[in-house]
Write a structure and sequence with these properties.
Blueprint lengths: L1 H7 L6 E2 L6 H6 L4 E3 L1 H9 L2 H7 L4 H4 L2 E4 L8 H4 L2 H13 L3 E3 L27 H12 L2 H5 L2 E4 L14 E8 L2 E8 L1
Parallel strand pairs: 1-2, 2-3, 3-4
Antiparallel strand pairs: 5-6, 6-7
Helix pairs in contact: 3-4
Amino acid sequence: MIRAVKGAFPHFLFIAEAYWDLEWELMEQGFDYCYDRRLYDRLEYETARSVGLHLHADLPYQEKLVRFIENHDEPRAASVFPPKKHRVFALTMATIPGAKLFHEGQFEGRRVRLPVFLGRRPAEPVDTAIPAFYRRLLKTVPLKEMRGGRWQLCDITGWPDNNSCENLAAWYWLCTGEFYLIVVNL
């Protein structure tokens, strides 16, 4: 089916909402992108080291992953993550290779997760810090330039009597002569 659709519509993108470690198999079958649920789980439940190990995957594979911190199946980011973690996770998701999925209402900090078929929503107070953060993120992070740039994960090391480096992850982008270093405290 994928081959037939691509033959008629070569720019059509197939995106799989994949779980259970089936992402690579689906990519081999022709899907252009697959959800990266593993990253979401590592951000929410595991350590910076675990996130770093996840980001060591081959770059061609990572470039075909859909990165997100909220979607229609998960609780809203603003309701699950404390404000600092929400910002760090959004920055992480936005600045690593792969497609970016920003869910409807995420920029406003919505907390109520609605069924996808529901056409109305309850009134929610807006936390002005979240929209301000996303405006800054989208204005500051050169997302367009990163698509054509070179990405590299950085090694994190510390010293014997200080293990604080275990909370950090870092990577950089080299884009049209510009260097962007991102260091996050997960």
